[in-house]
Task: inverse folding
């Protein structure tokens, strides 16, 4: 919950680090809540008590979902043009310092 809140605040300022952290933390958080998620899946499929098959299927769904969302985000980021925040105006080669390049 905290990572999602930090991601929302950072994204309001144009920073995407929080969104990446949220995507990376999807799998561990999903696996920590595996018992609750498998109980929800058990109710959804109408199974008796949570069996090993239901728990394993839920774990596979969590890992595949987290890996898929992270992979889709990486693919979308690679397709998007890289943008640098405009903190200072771009300088031409003639205006740059010959020593440090700034």
Result:
């Amino acid at each position: 919950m905290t990572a999602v809140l930090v991601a929302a605040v950072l994204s309001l300022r144009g920073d995407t680090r929080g969104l990446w952290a949220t995507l990376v933390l999807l799998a561990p958080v999903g696996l920590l809540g595996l018992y609750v998620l498998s109980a929800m899946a058990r109710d959804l499929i109408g199974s008796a008590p949570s069996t090993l098959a239901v728990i394993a299927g839920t774990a596979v769904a969590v890992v595949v979902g987290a890996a898929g969302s992270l992979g889709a985000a990486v693919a979308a980021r690679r397709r998007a043009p890289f943008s640098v925040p405009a903190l200072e105006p771009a300088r031409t080669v003639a205006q740059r310092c010959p020593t440090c390049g700034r």
About this structure: The chain has a mean pLDDT of 78. The two ends are 41 Å apart (CA to CA). Helices lie at 2-12, 17-32, 34-45, 52-79.
